[in-house]
Amino acid sequence: MQVINAVGRRKTAVARIYMKAGNGEISINGKGLKEYFPSEILQIILNQPFATTSTAGQYDLKVNVNGGGIAGQAEAVRMAVSRALCEANAENRPALKKEGFLTRDARMVERKKPGRKKARKKFQFSKR
Question: Is pTM beyond 0.85 here?
Answer without folding.
Answer: yes
